[in-house]
Design brief:
Layout (H helix, E strand, L loop, with lengths): L22 H5 L7 H11 L6 H17 L7 H11 L5 H20 L5 H12 L4 H4 L5 H18 L13 H5 L9 H9 L9 E3 L4 H6 L1 H21 L8 H14 E2 L2 E2 L16 H22 L12 H14 L9 E9 L1 H10 L11 E10 L2 E10 L8 H28 L5 H7 L1 E8 L2 E10 L2 E6 L4 E2 L9 H39 L15 H4 L10
Parallel strand pairs: 1-9, 6-7
Antiparallel strand pairs: 2-3, 4-5, 5-6, 7-8, 8-9, 8-10
Helix pairs in contact: 2-6, 3-4, 5-8, 6-8, 14-15
Length: about 550
């Protein structure tokens, strides 16, 4: 959680003359006591650029003295604010801020240890004073560029968490929209982005919402990446046809029943239950979606009829939550087409990851290679199951575990990246090496269930980068009977998601058939193609796409 000064009354408070407290706290207002502002002050005022450990210890020691001071000397809200600042390394956000400041301060000190203080102050004033873009683009020497980039990155990245910095950006929306996409997607930028930050960035995975460090470093490029992702989402969405029409009748009946059963903030649940009559009898392939919609409504109605249910009970387990709602909404959605699209749930091993680890291990390496997910969405491609979606459930419906959420999300991103790579290999092994073709409709999905939030991510390949962002298919489960009207929207979004998965499989199958036809035609007029005896085993799996099919263990 971001440290906040809870009372604006003391935002202008300065520390009294307490022994051991740094002069910064005695001259600067409490609202400016964060680490980023303290570091800028030290760079402006100190004649020597002290080592990071010394500067950080001084900041921490001063805060601890202020926390222990009496209420007469330091107001309670200010002491609480100082206590939160001391615990900066107790949260994920704080660790990011601290590591960013630490690395950049140390790099700054190494570069400018001998810089004169007057020149330092002049550059800092230039850096943080309001300026227009034309002024920022004035030529600088190499030292200036390194210095400004370092401090600007530190300032902007830390400002993301509770900072008060305001940026002056005179670029209009029209000018931003006219930026050339090619400028941001070249190999050089991809390499830079992969080198900045940690974790999934090493795999060229660009998680657009929360990659704070690259966003601060490549602000304009990041905006373009967001635009690219949005364009690809719009292109794909325009091509799919949702099966909502198949369930319009039952949705209308439940909508009407809810309206009639609701009076002055109270829902008479018994009046909402519908004994739905399937016309001409029930046929699995024809009526499954209507049956599924009916099940979804009944599950919520039964849940809200209980005095204690999984959507509000903190003692319920993750497995109970999955059984009640996660599997119902996600696994059952594909049951009528499970011959070619299936969501495996439980503790599902990622075979791609296992094979990757086995191939990379030495003969005597006992490295742990198991990697399990709460669910894997698979599609049948010429008899071979390929991964296109990963599901992770953080806990029950009321869980608040940010650290585990981030860990599961990173796990999803890595698995999405590996799944998309496997799909790319299918294309390349079938003679489709055109980058434009690969980045046309190819995508993988990630579903993160955190509390009642169902977050659906999509990953698109574009010029060496793997762009990931949340789609507009995400939703939140209702927690009270008065929120039952949300169920209709949830059903419609899931049906769009199902249609999108079906479209992806159909498109892949079509492209492979076209490539296979072209290959057979070429072989009639050319010499036979001999396989190299040195072909690695890892590629043999993809060769089965055009050959006889068999079940994979």
């Amino acid at each position: 959680m971001t440290a906040m000064l809870k009372s604006e009354q003391y935002s202008n408070f300065v520390s009294p003359n307490l022994k051991g407290v740094h002069s910064y706290f005695k001259t600067k207002e409490a609202q400016d006591w964060r680490i980023k502002n303290y570091l800028v002050f030290c760079l402006e005022e100190d004649k020597l650029i002290l080592p990071w450990a010394v500067v950080y210890d001084d900041w921490q020691r001063s805060l601890k003295i202020l926390v222990k001071a009496s209420a007469k000397q330091i107001p309670g809200s200010v002491r609480a604010f100082c206590a939160d600042l001391i615990k900066i390394d107790s949260t994920v956000e704080g660790i990011i801020v601290l590591e960013t400041c630490k690395n950049l301060y140390k790099g700054f000190r190494d570069q400018f240890l001998d810089l004169e203080i007057d020149a330092r102050i002049q550059k800092l004033e230039t850096l943080f004073s309001p300026m227009d873009r034309s002024k920022m683009e004035q030529p600088y020497n190499d030292i200036d560029i390194i210095r400004i980039n370092a401090l600007n990155l530190m300032y902007e990245a830390t400002s993301y968490f509770g900072g008060d910095v305001s940026t002056d950006d005179n670029i209009s929306d029209d000018e931003k929209n006219e930026m050339l996409l090619a400028e941001v997607t070249d190999g050089i930028l991809a390499k830079k982005l992969s080198e900045v930050g940690k974790g999934v960035a090493r795999y060229n995975v660009i998680f657009i919402p929360e990659n704070i460090i690259p966003r601060a470093t490549f602000y304009e490029e990041w905006q373009t990446l967001e635009k690219i992702f949005s364009q690809k989402e719009e292109e794909i969405t325009s091509k799919i046809s949702s099966p909502i029409k198949e369930v319009e009748n039952i949705l209308d009946k439940y909508r009407e029943a809810l309206v009639n059963a609701t009076h002055r903030g109270y829902v008479k649940l018994d009046s909402v239950f519908i004994d739905y009559d399937f016309q001409n009898g029930f046929e699995f392939q024809r009526n499954w979606l209507e049956y599924w919609v009916n099940n979804v409504y009944w599950k919520f109605l039964i849940c809200f009829s209980l005095s204690k249910h999984v959507l509000i009970d903190g003692s319920s387990s993750e497995y109970q939550y999955r059984d009640w709602f996660v599997n119902l909404l996600l696994e059952d959605l594909f049951l009528d087409i499970n011959c070619h699209i299936r969501l495996k749930t439980g503790e599902v091993e990622n075979i791609h990851r296992k094979n990757q680890k086995i191939l990379s291990n030495l003969s005597d390496d006992r490295q742990h290679i198991d990697w399990y997910h709460d669910g894997i969405l698979t599609v049948d491609i010429n008899g071979v199951e390929e991964y296109i979606g990963i599901l992770e459930v953080v806990g029950n419906a009321v869980v608040e575990d940010h650290i585990k959420m981030v860990s599961d999300r990173d796990k999803i991103l890595k698995a999405m990246r590996l799944a998309l790579f496997q799909l790319e290999q299918i294309f390349r092994c079938n003679g489709m090496n055109d980058e434009k073709q690969l980045q046309n409709n190819l995508e993988t999905f990630g579903i993160l269930v955190y509390g009642r939030h169902f977050i659906i991510y999509a990953m698109h390949y574009y010029e060496g980068l793997y762009l990931v962002d949340e789609t507009d298919l995400s939703f939140i489960l209702p927690s009270t009977p008065m929120e039952l009207y949300l169920v209709e929207g949830i059903i419609k979004r899931l049906l769009v998601f199902r249609a999108r998965v079906e479209y992806l499989r159909t498109w892949i199958q079509t492209q492979i058939r076209l490539a296979d036809t072209t290959t057979r035609h070429l072989r009639r007029i050319t010499t036979p193609v001999m396989l190299s005896p040195g072909t690695p085993n890892v590629n043999q799996r993809f060769a089965r796409i055009n050959g006889p099919t068999r079940n994979r263990e």
